[in-house]
Amino acid sequence: MSVRYRVRWTKEGRTRFVSARDQSSIWERALRRADLPIAYSEGFTPHARVSFPDALPVGVASTGEYAELTFAAPIRADDALARLSTALPEGMDILTYAEVPAGAPKLASLLRATLWELVWPPVDATALTTLLEQRCDTLLAATSHEVVRHRPDGDRTLDVRPAVVSLAVATGPTPDGSGARTTLRAVLRNDAPTIRPSDLLAAVGDGDVAPPALVRRVAQGVPSDDGLTEAIDGTVMTVRSDVVAEAA
After folding, report:
1. Considering the entire predicted model, what is its pTM?
2. What are the structural domain ranges in the chain?
3. What pLDDT sits at residue 46?
């Protein structure tokens, strides 16, 4: 009897440069090393039944990646998925998981919004925070805000505002405590057309804000008034980085 599990996992450090194509191969190898009874597709070139609902742009970090795994036999989830997490490369770690009950909605339908985090290095952090706060307030007060996305096949004009659920800007210490840095967190709807962090930066950066040092996808789930409800364990994740999350 096959069973399905959904997992939330990370893509940090050097693994954020792994392409979507290589990512599938990495997971297949890790499943073999962990000696787990993963189910395989049929046909001339069987593949492990592991599905990823969306692709993360190369170079973007994440603590909000998701996958659905189908096993050919029941597993002891705590032990099995811990072994799988250990078998994955450093930077790819399974954070949480849940068994998928019969008749459950598709995973992609639960990933209706993304909590993004953009972090700038500690250079004039107070001034940058103030500037971004003003521009975020202006964006939230607007009914529309168009930006131009430059593409090799031609520019495209997008309205950023309908995708924005909430925004918050803060100044906080760097991990080593050597200075202050600016962080912009945003909950963006995943509805088409998808608005990327680069589109949001074009809207609030107005051409005079340098690109952030790090872009991270924090989590995905169902949007709420001031954040989102994470798709797997129901944790309420606020857009404000100084607020402790609660269980839903």
Report:
1. 0.91
2. 3-109, 111-247
3. 85
